[in-house]
From TrEMBL:
Reaction it catalyzes: Endohydrolysis of (1->4)-beta-D-glucosidic linkages in cellulose, lichenin and cereal beta-D-glucans
Family (UniProt): Belongs to the glycosyl hydrolase 9 (cellulase E) family.
Keyword field contains Ribonucleoprotein: no
E.C. no: 3.2.1.4
Protein name in UniProt: Endoglucanase
Transmembrane spans: 73-95
Keyword entries, A-Z: Carbohydrate metabolism, Cellulose degradation, Glycosidase, Hydrolase, Membrane, Polysaccharide degradation, Transmembrane, Transmembrane helix
InterPro entries: 6-hairpin_glycosidase_sf, 6hp_glycosidase-like_sf, Glyco_hydro_9, Glyco_hydro_9_Asp/Glu_AS, Glyco_hydro_9_His_AS
Lineage: Eukaryota, Viridiplantae, Streptophyta, Embryophyta, Tracheophyta
Amino acid sequence: MSERSNLWGGTFDITLEMEDQSIESGHRHYYDRSAYQSPLEDEVKQGWLLRPAMDMEMKRKKKKRCFNINPTVLIRTLVVVAVLAGFVALVAFLATRRHHHRPPPVQDNYTIALQRALMFFNAQRSGKLPANNHVSWRGDSCLDDGNGYLNGLEGGYYDGGDAVKYSFPASFAMTMLSWSVLEYSAKYETAGELNHVKDIIRWGTDYLLKTFNSSADTIDKIVLQVGKNSSENCWIRPESINYPRPVIPCSTCPALAAEMAAALAAASIVFKDDHKYSKKLVHGADILFKFATKGEGERYAGGSDPPSNFYNSSGFWDEFVWGGAWMYCATGNSSYIDLVTSPGLAKHAEAFWGGPDHGVHGWDNKHAGAQLLMSRLRMFLDFGYPYEEMLKNFHEQICEIICSYLPGSHNFKRTNGGLIELNHGKPKPLQYVTNAAFLATLYADYLEATLTPGWQCGAKFYPKDAFRDFAKTQIDYILGRNLRHMSYVVGFSDHFPQYVHHKGASIPGYIKHQSCQEGLRWKESKKPNPNTIVGAMVGGPDKHDGFQDNRSNYNFTEPTIAGNAGLVAALVALSDGSKTGIDKNTMFYAIPPFSMPRPPRPLVGKP
């Protein structure tokens, strides 16, 4: 007979041996069947005659037994029952108390701030809003953007407080958010925000795909901007805009196109499980990168991006390295790693030279981010020849940059309150501080993932926690640990900016339609904003830790999606997340196994 095992390794079958044992022990478990045979007739009659007397005898014996109970046994029994009852009651009481008084899981400040910072992107959405947008004072807006241009330009994000859509900072924001998801998806999930941040990224990439002919194989222009900044003479809610908004295309814009390629490439890895959408993003990124470089790579001889009043790129070679690195991660195509490790491209990008902005990662300068991304390839994949020399240079450069953030370095000044001055005392410092905090924390996590205890910065060795501590002090400053005791993230703590430079937040939601001139009274109002734009990180203080909570002074009070993307990345990196580290593998999912070619043999004379 075949044996059937249960979950614990036993068997469900009864063997013949078991059956024999049951028969042999049957007399101990069953009544004798002869006991059920019918009694004889005279026995029955005798039973009838004796039944009354027998009943009386039984009652007498019962009564006698009731009065012959041993007192000692009775007392012991009662004591045991009382003890058991008391024990059961105590257990029930403690269980109930624990159930009702168990404190909820404590979220650290970084996780709470992260949840708020993500909500800012909901408030910046343009177009037809989803039902789960959860910003009560926002509604559908600018549904006619780009009518007649390709398939229309509805959607996307307003950059800041003036309802203009700029492709450059939007692309940078999506790249940074995607990078943070690829490194810290487990932390996002622990915070309950993984689906939310993915929705935010997809809202942005869906719009970027509309800004060029993403279904074609080649393109000759992309959209630089939709709308114009008119804060001086027009102050209305985005929902009240009923005039045509200009679309500004661009036919030569290598920096913008390479940044857009980076955004779509990074997002394609985030959405790798949605094969159709991921493939669409990779295709769009590929044609954007070819459009950016004109297929010439390090020999590119084309023009620069056109000048812009607000997001004017200072160069494009750094975007070539940044975009190429993301393209390699998204496709595994070796032509991209060949390009970004070519000495000529690094020389053009001035990747290994100093300067006042060396190490200042932001929407216009990608050197630090690109070098950390390339160092990641070296630290976890160990490419070796022929890429090792350039990857090692990138690695050494990012180590110098991260070291320059530490208090012992003299590369950057600090305010009296402790804020690092990465933009050298210029307005809107916080966007650069959050990016540096993200890079420093990520670098520390790379060290931890490679079992490296720390790093040598000059003559001093710093443990890896020193880099994370730098990030914490800077983010803590932003969240309120500063001389003003003010949080520069709206809705976090009890003291935060009340006069945020934001048209939608400054005008009551019940006002549906008004003219540009009518809306100016809300800009000039002395009352705080009627709508709280939760999670918005404002421009920040000056170099003296001073801050003007003034709606008209956008240098202090305007938030941007590029700034908030860096904030989100830094917050998720620092959040507890049950002590979860980085995800080492997902970013490299498209890179095939690397077969290392042999170095060329040295030239020798003929035998």
